[in-house]
Amino acid sequence: MTVEQDEDPFDNVQDLIEQLQTGNTSVEQLATVAEKIDLNKSDLEQFILDNQGTIIKDSVDVLQIMKQYVSAAPNAEDIGSFAELLKAASTAIDNLTKLHVSNQRTDTQVKIKQMDIDSKKQLSDDKNLTKLVCTREEIIKKMIEKSEVVDVTTTEEDPST
Fold this sequence. Notes:
The protein is built from 4 helices and no strands.
């Protein structure tokens, strides 16, 4: 490799220094983001959904970029990295799907249990309506109280006629 006379190899050094200096501020920004996150149980699900969604979106974006890069100049390391990223993105999507299915299953189970409770309550109410809630003696007493006296007159018939 020969260096031409009019091309100074140290011209790019200033660009490299600037990149390193700006990279340092990016690391400082990442350090502030990486501070401890205080989550309670009610915020945990939303935190998982938000971050899982961000990870999936970023992974898909990087996959699109890497797909073009790998198809342009295939390299064993790049293809391996692409495969690992694809696997990670698929796993993240699968985990999010499992969380969604689990939430739907829980909601369905609660609704089914409520329907079961309501139907048992209705059957119990119907059963209680058809049951007698008094004793035999009380029923006879009520029948006697409500009965009307029937005046019966008997006439004898002559059996010879």
